[in-house]
TrEMBL record, chains A, B:
Residues 1-23 are annotated as: Disordered. This is Transcriptional regulator, ArsR family. Residues 1-12 have a biased composition (Low complexity). CDD domains: HTH_ARSR. It comes from Nannocystis exedens. Residues 13-23 have a biased composition (Basic and acidic residues). SMART domains: HTH_ARSR. The keyword DNA-binding applies.
DNA sequence: CGAGTTCATCGTGAAATGACGATAAAGCCT
DNA sequence: AGGCTTTATCGTCATTTCACGATGAACTCG
């Protein structure tokens, strides 16, 4: 097997179109949930960090943010539950990256109003 | 004076460019605050309502949403404090409308990541 | 003036959020 | 195996949010 993947956690990009509507009750709740997840400065910082480094970071986030490790982990969970971020276990650590599909969806929903 | 303005509350559109950066600590907090304001289904519904009707609504929002009047007023205050919505007193009622400038800013900030 | 609207604000209680330290789980290295 | 690192989860506490009814302020109209 090719054991020389340094940080293979981010999916290889998904360009399939998203056919879900950007209006209606469903879309409203979806948008609210995504916005809520982003509605905290620390989480915005995490997202920006992940968008900068194409490569996925893990515990470096803890070093950058002025927060306790458990707090950062909580924020990562919020982002992961919202689908904005993916986490892949890589040995003893976890590798995080943006989910570009959900990011696009968020922008589309916001654009819908 | 021209007293025949039916609902003159929305500003006449502002096309001036927004020169503020879309990155950095300031932008992070700005984005978080905007997202937080949008992070509730009722508030998304209000925004959508206002984006539909070019004309500004006021207490019609209360009729549409399944919430008490005071609750709707609270949500409107959140949106207003975030700058996403403008309210103009028009006689005994208040006329609300989107602030397209802030909406654009929100989309620009989100686009920045 | 006085009654009736319309909306904002206050006070309150239940629930969610944000932060932390402590602890547990899972993997690496010698 | 044993120790070390890394991360997730738990329990807790303080704060914020959400929803409501009640009250108050401002305006219109008879």
């Amino acid at each position: 097997m090719n054991s020389d993947d340094p940080a293979v956690c981010c999916p290889p990009a998904d360009d399939r179109p998203d056919l879900r509507p950007v209006e209606g009750d469903e879309a409203d709740h979806e948008l609210a949930a995504l916005a809520k997840a982003v509605g905290h400065p620390a989480r915005v910082q995490i997202l920006r960090l992940l968008s900068r480094r194409a490569s996925c970071v893990c515990g470096e986030i803890v070093d950058v943010l002025p927060l306790a490790q458990s707090t950062v982990s909580q924020h990562l969970k919020v982002l992961k539950d919202a689908g904005l971020v993916r986490g892949e276990i890589d040995g003893p650590r976890t590798c995080y990256c943006l989910d570009p599909r959900t990011m696009r969806r968020f922008k589309a929903l916001l654009g819908g109003l």
